[in-house]
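input
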Amino acid sequence: MRREDIQVFRDIQKNAELAMKAVDTVADKTYDDALALQLSRQSLKYSQLRNQAAGKLLSAHLEPTRSNVVEELLVAGNIHKDTLLNTSTSHIAELVIQESSRKISRLCQSLHKYENAGEEAVEMAREFMDFEESNIRQLRKFL
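output
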């Protein structure tokens, strides 16, 4: 496996883990059943994407990226701060949409940085970005 592939898979894994932390944090503040269901579906897909990326690294006898506790605390802390005074369904949907947009940007940057990544790594990153775009479309109905 090429270095570029490794980095893209690690970026996918990292983004999925941070997304799971964000969804788990915001889900505790969600009172709308439809939004809670949407967030649960997202969390499941993030878990699948994380496991796929980690599986690719493991199959190449490489160690998957370890969770960065500081980054996870920053994600959770920002969500707590942003929902301190407003836990409305539309506000929570807006926060999740913003986070999805950030993940799309980070993965685009990763693909540009590692432009020589193989087809499999690029395809998984694009699947992740397509999933995020789908999330944004689904969450817009909660705004």
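quick obs: The chain has one domain: 3-142.
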